[in-house]
């Protein structure tokens, strides 16, 4: 038996005398290589995903093309979306070839651009007003630099992520001192810390752990018009009542420093589902989410659609906002229904779902959710 068995270290036949020629690899000419796509558009916050603060992303009708170079140091995304009646274009490029990681992104026509100015009421108080310039596309360009420092051991994932970002938009504000409108430029400095238990394939949330982020933002060269903003968030994970269930508790706080300034900055804190963003002097939010699997057996519906798991994730959010007209309480309750699936022959697994609920204004809301390993 042994004598009959043939053992070949290499089955590739090479012509005698053939010499392999080494060639230089031009990194710049090989930055882009389209390798996959998605049938919807979504905007990933890479730092929130990296630190386990965010699990799913909101999606819009559209599509995305992904690019990744052969060295896995350059990632790019180009996409189209349809949001609230606007046909929008998106681009993002991220380079990991050195520290810090550099990410450049742009969005065009997600809404009409706006102009803000001051008005005075009968009591002599100044109020910030926001005028929409209909038919004028909104443009946002963002540059982000961050250093993902990871410290993993003993079944735990830990890390510290310092960051700096600069953002330009063609929204405008009126400067009374300069007697003209100017465009926005935002600069932010911050750090995120996290430590979570490594996740098994069946886990929806990490079993244990948590993290926090601190972010300080300013509007450079704005003089008397803008102050600064401080934002912090905390989150923690803990096991649910049954094996495979998970709980996420989170809180966030935002404070604007606007003494002797004309305008409030745009928010960093996220308002509850179903609410439009509004100006805020200060804000606090607290939320709870409970994740559970509903069905874990495979469901082969068609050759193009294969469901591997169904999840349910009820949530509740309370939000206290210090608005221009005084404090207000906002809230939202609802649930996410999520499907782990393979779709349209796409090689990697996806999570697609819907979020629905009601908020404090007695309005119902529905949003699409998405997650991909890319």
TrEMBL record:
Name of the featured protein: Bacterial surface antigen (D15) domain-containing protein
Species: bioreactor metagenome
């Amino acid at each position: 038996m042994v004598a009959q068995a043939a053992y070949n270290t290499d089955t590739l036949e090479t012509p005698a005398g053939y010499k392999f020629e080494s060639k230089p690899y031009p990194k710049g000419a090989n930055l882009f290589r389209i390798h996959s796509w998605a049938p919807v558009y979504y905007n990933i916050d890479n730092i929130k995903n990296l630190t386990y603060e965010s699990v799913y992303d909101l999606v819009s009708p559209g599509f995305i093309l992904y690019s990744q170079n052969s060295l896995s140091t350059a990632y790019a995304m180009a996409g189209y979306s349809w949001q609230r009646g606007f046909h929008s274009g998106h681009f993002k490029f991220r380079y990991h070839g050195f520290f810090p990681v550099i990410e450049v992104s742009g969005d065009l026509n997600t809404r009409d651009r706006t102009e803000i100015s001051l008005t005075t009421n009968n009591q002599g108080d100044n109020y910030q007003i926001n005028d929409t310039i209909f038919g004028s596309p909104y443009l946002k360009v963002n540059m982000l630099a961050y250093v993902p420092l990871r410290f993993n051991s003993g079944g735990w994932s830990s890390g510290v992520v310092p960051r700096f970002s600069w953002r330009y938009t063609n929204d405008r504000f009126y400067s009374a001192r300069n007697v003209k409108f100017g465009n926005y430029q935002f600069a932010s400095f911050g750090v995120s810390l996290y430590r979570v238990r490594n996740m098994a394939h069946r886990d929806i949330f990490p079993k244990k752990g948590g993290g926090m982020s601190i972010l300080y933002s300013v509007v450079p060269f704005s003089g008397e018009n803008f102050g600064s903003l401080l934002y912090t968030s905390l989150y923690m994970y803990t096991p649910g009542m049954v094996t495979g269930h998970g709980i996420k508790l989170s809180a966030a706080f935002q404070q604007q420093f606007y003494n002797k300034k004309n305008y409030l900055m745009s928010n960093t804190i996220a308002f509850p589902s179903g609410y439009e963003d509004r100006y805020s002097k200060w804000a606090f939010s607290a939320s709870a989410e409970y994740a559970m699997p509903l069905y874990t057996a495979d469901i082969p519906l068609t050759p193009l659609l294969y469901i591997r798991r169904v999840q349910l994730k009820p949530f509740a959010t309370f939000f206290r906002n210090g608005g221009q007209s005084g404090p207000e309480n906002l809230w939202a309750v609802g649930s996410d229904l999520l499907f782990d699936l393979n779709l349209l022959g796409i090689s990697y697994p996806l999570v697609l779902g819907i979020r629905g609920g009601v908020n404090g204004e007695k309005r119902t809301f529905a949003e699409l959710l998405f997650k991909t390993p890319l």
